[in-house]
């Protein structure tokens, strides 16, 4: 247990009572969790009885790795995952009590939108469908079923939404599918209503740890309470100043209620920040100061004053991007040893702000990755493949069926599918189930029947083989065969106008299949040629849980590239050098269009959350921090004039030192010359 201070040690050793670690950014909260996992195992707890809940899959992968380096192989059995993944686990094991088959599908947001459109008669546009989706999600996060929502609806709008939700729930049950909110809501119902299941899990879980507790929502808190039961052996760590998911239903009420719901709660505060220099920490403390305090906190750093935080004023966004690139190059050229690419992060408020930055980085040939943006899994070609996988795993998944049967096209037309749909609903079966009914011959012509039967046999055959395909090597071969069999590459070339786009999509497909294969385990060699052995899984097993994964590479952290990320996705992470870009009024704090009519308290709450977002951004930096803004930015097609964010003034920087260092400019020029001359920079 070296590398922990006294308060951290206290938190690690508090194993027989509920424990809350409440502390500011960079104070070692996440470190407490990893060390506590190791300590619990050393104390003799079975690793499989420990669950550590993180905010993202990526954070889970990192924690598993860290715990592994502390205690070795035993860490593998610890359940390290997100609340949603834990929900999947509960439902796959015990969901039958709720009428859910173990092979249920998990719908992503695009599936949900299209099902809702369908439920409403198919005429709604995407924006409307998204609004319903948010509305239903909010109802589910309050723990309401459609019937309950209907009963308490106050106006026509609420009644319409609840009625739609009722139809939506029926569809999901018929498809044996769940959405993301169900991954928390259904396990909650399961534990509430089924005592034996609840007791089983409470017995099995000897200790539950939760990172980023401030961003849990009400249903997640209820789920946590049922998981830990009366014994209440859990450790939650969090920071009320970093609560940034209020817009998605997270509530600080969970922090406030914890001491009331668990009177034995041991509250531990950490005060030393091990991440940032004093200059950076001071700016952070100043920014967060105006927010009302749930718990008073102090935070100090012993890493020295460090370099002043700088503010860069730019003309427009392209200019800002160039300056960011120049800053990175200059730091690389002037420091000894030079920082690696992965030591840099550029953070911003909204996804679209990445674009000019990407362009500038590409032009300078600087390797980078964008995290927190459009996920790989939202691309059409990947969603095509996922539809097939889902259909293997769950034959009743009608949306997956419709996508797979028409991609690539196999001569099965809309009329055939419409008749099949009618037949299926008359016989209360799924589309796939209807394929094999002898009575189908009465409603469809021979040719259509043959096409459908062939498709059905193909899927069954594939499912059979996928179940028996174990390990990465076999999985890779299987997927290559399968792609050839369904003619997916030809399909891409036929449907894409440009060869270049078709090739890019095909490469995505190959990358995706390779990644799927890797997840089937066995002997795996990485790019550096080192091999590792992991437990073999069947390809079908991999396919089942695919919707849960939002990043293609759980180990992307290790690549030597500059990170571009939204502030939301940067939570919990740290980099030696951080640039916050686009820090203007309107962007950060973000001001949505049509906000003027909002009532005061809602506007205040929103501003406070934006301020916490700025606090999160500043506290990602270890050694240097630059905050930049531009005088003009694109808004739609127009250029609008911008003011620096009020948060820049709130940082209370010293005007004399916060402006760009002229020596830096010089170094920058020198680095540029050196590069052009082909000589290494001095
Ligand atoms: P955040 O609020 O951003 O999630 P955190 O409180 O979880 O931050 P960590 O990420 O656990 O903080 O720790 C921040 C940094 O400080 C990490 O690099 C970690 O290794 C280091 N650190 C934490 N505790 C100690 C310690 N006792 N001694 C030395 N370094 C420490
Ligand atoms: Mg943390």
Q: What is this structure's SSE topology?
A:
Elements: H1 6-13, E1 19-23, H2 29-42, E2 50-54, H3 57-71, E3 79-82, H4 83-94, E4 105-106, H5 109-119, H6 126-141, H7 146-151, H8 156-175, E5 177-178, H9 182-193, H10 195-204, E6 207-210, H11 218-228, E7 234-238, H12 253-261, E8 266-270, E9 272-273, H13 278-288, E10 300-301, E11 310-314, H14 317-334, E12 344-348, H15 354-363, E13 368-371, H16 380-393, H17 398-406, H18 414-426, H19 431-435, H20 446-468, H21 471-486, H22 488-495, H23 499-519, E14 522-525, E15 531-534, H24 539-544, E16 562-566, E17 575-580, H25 600-618, E18 621-630, E19 632-635, E20 638-641, H26 646-650, H27 655-658, H28 662-677
Parallel strand pairs: 1-7, 1-8, 2-3, 2-6, 4-5, 6-7, 9-10, 11-18, 12-16, 12-17, 13-16, 17-18
Antiparallel strand pairs: 14-15, 19-20
Helix pairs in contact: 1-2, 2-3, 4-9, 5-6, 9-10, 9-11, 13-25, 14-15, 14-28, 16-17, 16-20, 21-23, 22-23
Bound molecules: adenosine-5'-triphosphate and magnesium ion.
The site of magnesium ion has 4 residues, from helix 2.
Provide a descriptive summary of the structure in words:
- The chain is an alpha/beta fold and 682 residues long.
- It folds into four domains: 6-92 and 185-270, P-loop containing nucleotide triphosphate hydrolases (Rossmann fold), CATH 3.40.50; 105-175, Arc Repressor Mutant, subunit A; 300-374 and 557-676, P-loop containing nucleotide triphosphate hydrolases (Rossmann fold), CATH 3.40.50.300; 377-549, PCRA, domain 4 (Orthogonal Bundle), CATH 1.10.486.
- The protein has 28 helices and 20 strands.
- A six-stranded parallel beta sheet has the order 3-2-6-7-1-8, sandwiched between helices.
- α25 links the parallel β17 (575-580) and β18.
- α16 packs across α20 (446-468).
- Magnesium ion is lined by residues 29-30, 211, 572.
């Amino acid at each position: 247990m070296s590398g922990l201070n006294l308060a951290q040690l206290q938190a690690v050793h508090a194993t027989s009572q509920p424990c809350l670690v409440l502390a500011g950014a960079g104070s070692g909260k996440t470190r407490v969790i990893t060390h506590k996992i190791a300590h619990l195992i050393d104390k003799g707890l079975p690793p499989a009885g420990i669950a550590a809940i993180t905010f993202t899959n990526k954070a889970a992968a990192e924690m598993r790795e860290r715990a592994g380096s502390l205690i070795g192989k035993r860490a593998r059995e610890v359940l390290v995952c997100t609340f949603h993944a834990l929900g999947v686990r509960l439902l796959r094991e015990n969901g039958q009590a709720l009428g859910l088959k173990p092979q249920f599908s998990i719908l992503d947001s695009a599936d949900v939108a299209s099902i809702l459109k369908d439920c409403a008669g198919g005429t709604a546009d995407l924006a409307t469908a998204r609004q319903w989706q948010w509305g239903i999600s909010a109802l589910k996060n309050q723990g309401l079923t459609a019937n309950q929502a209907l009963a308490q609806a106050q106006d026509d709008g609420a009644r319409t939404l609840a009625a739609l939700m009722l139809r939506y729930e029926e569809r999901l049950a018929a498809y044996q599918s769940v959405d993301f909110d169900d991954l928390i809501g259904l396990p909650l119902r399961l534990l509430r209503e089924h005592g034996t299941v609840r007791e089983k899990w409470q017995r099995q879980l000897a200790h539950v740890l939760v990172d980023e507790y401030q961003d849990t929502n009400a249903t997640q808190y209820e789920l946590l309470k049922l998981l830990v039961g009366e014994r209440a052996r859990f450790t939650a760590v969090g920071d009320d100043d970093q609560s940034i998911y209020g817009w998605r239903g997270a509530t600080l009420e969970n922090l406030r209620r914890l001491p009331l719901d668990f009177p034995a709660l041991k509250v531990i505060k950490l005060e030393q920040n091990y991440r940032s220099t004093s200059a950076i920490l001071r700016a952070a403390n100043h920014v967060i100061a105006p927010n009302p305090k749930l718990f008073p906190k102090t935070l100090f750093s012993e890493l020295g004053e460090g370099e002043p935080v700088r503010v860069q004023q730019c003309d427009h966004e392209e200019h800002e991007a160039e300056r960011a690139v120049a800053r990175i190059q200059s730091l690389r050229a002037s420091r000894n040893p030079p920082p690696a690419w992965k030591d840099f992060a550029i953070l911003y408020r909204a996804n679209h702000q990445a674009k000019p930055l990407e362009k500038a980085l590409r032009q300078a040939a600087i390797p980078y990755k964008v995290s927190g943006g459009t996920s790989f899994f939202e691309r059409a070609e990947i969603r095509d493949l996922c539809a097939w996988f889902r259909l293997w795993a769950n034959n009743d998944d009608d949306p997956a069926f419709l996508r797979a049967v028409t991609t690539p096209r196999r001569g099965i037309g809309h009329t055939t599918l419409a008749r099949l749909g009618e037949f299926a609903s008359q016989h209360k079966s799924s589309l796939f189930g209807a394929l094999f009914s002898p009575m189908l011959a009465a409603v469809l012509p021979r040719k259509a029947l043959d096409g459908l039967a062939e498709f059905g046999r193909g899927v069954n055959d594939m499912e059979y083989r996928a179940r028996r395909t174990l390990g990465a090597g076999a999985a890779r071969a299987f997927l290559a065969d399968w792609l050839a069999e369904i003619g997916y590459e030809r399909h891409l070339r036929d449907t894409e106008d440009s060869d270049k786009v078709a090739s890019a999509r095909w490469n995505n497909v190959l990358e995706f299949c390779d990644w799927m294969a890797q997840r089937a385990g066995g002997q795996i060699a990485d790019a550096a040629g080192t091999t590792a052995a992991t437990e073999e899984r069947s390809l079908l097993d991999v396919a089942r849980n695919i919707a849960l994964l939002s990043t293609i590479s759980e180990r992307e952290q290790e690549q030597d590239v500059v990170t571009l990320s939204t502030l939301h996705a940067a939570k919990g992470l740290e980099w030696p050098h951080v640039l916050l870009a686009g820090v203007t009024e309107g962007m950060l704090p973000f001001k949505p269009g049509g906000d003027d009519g909002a009532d005061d308290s809602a506007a205040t709450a929103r501003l406070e959350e934006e301020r916490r977002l700025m606090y999160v951004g500043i506290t990602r930096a270890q050694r240097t921090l630059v905050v930049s803004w531009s005088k003009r930015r694109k808004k739609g097609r127009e250029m609008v004039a911008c003011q620096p964010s009020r948060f820049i003034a709130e940082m209370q920087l010293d005007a004399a030192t916060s402006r760009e260092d002229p020596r830096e400019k010089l170094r920058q020029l020198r680095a540029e010359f050196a590069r052009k001359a082909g000589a290494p920079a001095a």
